[in-house]
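lol forgot to send this yesterday, sorry. struct tokens for the thing we talked abt
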């Protein structure tokens, strides 16, 4: 039986929680790109994989040639990066670089699908960056 969660505030506690799904989102605008990453998988006992949705919105009347490179930085180390829409590379213990080797059309949004990494329960997104060749 589902029980609706409640939120209580006590002055003697300094811990923070994420309500609802536990997702955190980070968005950055770079040149003609708006890139958004959302840590969308809730922590489940016994699971080490974390899913991050990556969406790149392109606001330009010009297309771009490959590669499109997105860099995702986490607060903790990650392992075993996988992504269906780009090639992932672990470039530092807490940094994954995604490379998409397809041209980008004018005003095209590029969904890179889910980036899946192995990490502990305290994983959070710290930064995201994007660049391409003009």
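and heres what i got for the seq, position by position
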């Amino acid at each position: 039986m589902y029980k609706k969660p409640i939120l209580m505030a006590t002055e003697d506690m300094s811990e923070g929680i994420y309500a609802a799904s536990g997702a955190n989102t980070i968005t950055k605008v770079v040149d003609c790109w708006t890139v958004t990453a959302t840590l969308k998988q809730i922590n489940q006992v016994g699971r080490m994989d974390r899913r991050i949705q990556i969406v790149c919105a392109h606001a330009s009347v010009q297309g771009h040639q490959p590669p499109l490179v997105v860099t995702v930085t986490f607060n903790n180390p990650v392992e075993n990066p996988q992504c269906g829409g780009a090639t992932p590379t672990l470039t530092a213990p807490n940094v994954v670089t995604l490379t998409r080797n397809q041209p980008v059309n004018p005003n095209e949004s590029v969904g890179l699908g889910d980036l899946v990494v192995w990490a502990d329960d305290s994983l959070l997104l710290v930064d995201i960056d994007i660049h391409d060749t003009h």
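The two ends are 55 Å apart (CA to CA). anyway ping me if u want another try
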